[in-house]
Amino acid sequence: MKYTLAIHGAPYASQSAQHGMAFAEALLRQAHTIERIFFFHEGVLQALSTPVAPQGEEDLLQKWQALSAQGVELAVCIASGIKRGVLSEEERARYEKTSNSLAEPFTLVGLGQLISAINEADRYIEFPA
Fold it and tell me: How many structural domains does the chain have?
């Protein structure tokens, strides 16, 4: 089966990311496909390149990057991201900011990418904050 997931919670502020991550890993272990993981609202903070994991907790950024290495697309809502300071190099230049903050391999996308992924998937699962 093909899945699309949406993560709404900020890292370390809710269990949204941890639950979404565990679900995604279980799907891949069972040979399912993940069309896209979409980060929305506070969930866009998962894509920041600068977080430091709290002592004793797993590094969520590294875990997202490991999922991407398995072929999972990590898509960040551009509207939610920009207003929270998640900027690609293009957006950094457009808004004349001093640095970008979008971690590799996340990409900033519009809501159309979420709709497209939902249409292509057999199941859509959200992990609210």
Answer: 1
77 annotated active-site = yes
84 closest CA partner among 103, 72, 101, 62: 101
Give the C-alpha separation, 62 to 126, whole Å: 21
CATH number reported for the structural domain that contains residue 47 in this entry: 3.40.1260.10
* Burial class, 83, CB count within 10 angstroms (exposed 0-12 / middle 13-18 / buried 19+): exposed
Active site residue: 24, 72, 74, 77, which one?
Answer: 77
Q: Please tell me the pTM assigned to this model.
A: 0.94
How many residues are recorded in the chain? 129
pLDDT tens digit sequence for 112-121? 999 999 999 9
